[in-house]
């Protein structure tokens, strides 16, 4: 797996590189600015990019903007975004571009090497990995959308696991139910949220975005 790291903190940048090399990954480039990151992506065409949310010059959303631009210029690129805090609007902005090959983790997760590597590989293989703490904070409050209130507690829980990036099999294992039961819950979620099979959007992404956007409006 070929990886580019975009992180303006030299110690964290090199620490990530050492960690990933120890896991036998190929670090093809590291960058400390958004421009250097985008140039590295263009030059090396990596499999995965690990990007800090806050980068120079303003340390606000430059990393997110660069990640979105990189995914648009290289559609097959998997991106794992790292953030020191839960930043709802940034999570929503990334998901709006589609959830495949996308991760959003808190930086503290890097210290839990097994969890971090699992998320990285899931993203590289085409999945989604959203930090459980991000999901917990977004889903902790009661949301006013009437369609969301129609979800049963079990359906609500299933949608929370979907937002973490778990597939149907993993959800079934987590809840100790059959995959058939998970399929049924997800069909009910889509129906109650008015997401028809003919919709051109990814219904799983649309369902998660409904929650994320509502939480952002109430923040």
UniProtKB/TrEMBL annotation:
Q: Which residues form the HTH luxR-type domain?
A: 144-215
PROSITE patterns in the record: HTH_LUXR_2, RESPONSE_REGULATORY
Q: Name one GO biological process term.
A: regulation of DNA-templated transcription
What SUPFAM superfamilies does the annotation carry?
A: C-terminal effector domain of the bipartite response regulators, CheY-like
Response regulatory domain location is 2-122
Q: Keywords, A to Z?
A: DNA-binding, Phosphoprotein, Transcription, Transcription regulation
**Molecular function per GO:** DNA binding
Q: Which Pfam families match?
A: GerE, Response_reg
The UniProt entry, under Gene3D superfamilies, shows: 3.40.50.2300
PTM 4-aspartylphosphate: at which residues?
Answer: 52
Q: Does the keyword Phosphoprotein apply?
A: yes
Q: Which residues form a coiled coil?
A: none
PANTHER family documented for this protein: TRANSCRIPTIONAL REGULATORY PROTEIN NARL-RELATED, TWO-COMPONENT RESPONSE REGULATOR
Protein name, please? Answer: DNA-binding response regulator
- Native source species: Streptomyces cacaoi
């Amino acid at each position: 797996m070929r990886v580019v790291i975009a992180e303006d903190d030299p110690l964290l940048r090199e620490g990530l590189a050492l960690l990933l090399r120890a896991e036998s990954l190929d670090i093809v480039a590291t960058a400390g600015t958004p421009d250097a990151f985008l140039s590295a992506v263009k030059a090396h065409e990596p499999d995965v990019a690990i990007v800090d949310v806050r980068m120079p010059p303003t340390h606000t959303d430059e990393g997110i903007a660069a990640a979105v631009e990189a995914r648009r210029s290289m559609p097959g690129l998997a991106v794992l975004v790292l953030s020191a805090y839960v930043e709802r609007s940034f999570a929503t902005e990334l998901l709006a571009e589609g959830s495949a090959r996308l991760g959003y983790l808190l930086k503290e997760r890097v210290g839990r090497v097994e969890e971090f590597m699992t998320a990285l590989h899931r993203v590289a293989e085409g999945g989604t990995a959203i930090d459980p703490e991000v999901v917990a904070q977004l889903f902790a409050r009661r949301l006013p959308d009437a369609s969301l209130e129609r979800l049963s507690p079990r359906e609500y829980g299933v949608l929370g696991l979907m937002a973490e990036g778990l597939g149907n099999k993993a959800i079934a294992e987590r809840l100790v139910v059959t995959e058939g039961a998970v399929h049924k819950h997800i069909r009910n979620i889509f129906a109650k949220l008015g997401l028809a099979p003919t919709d051109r959007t990814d219904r799983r992404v649309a369902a998660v975005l409904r929650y994320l956007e509502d939480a952002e409006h109430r923040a």
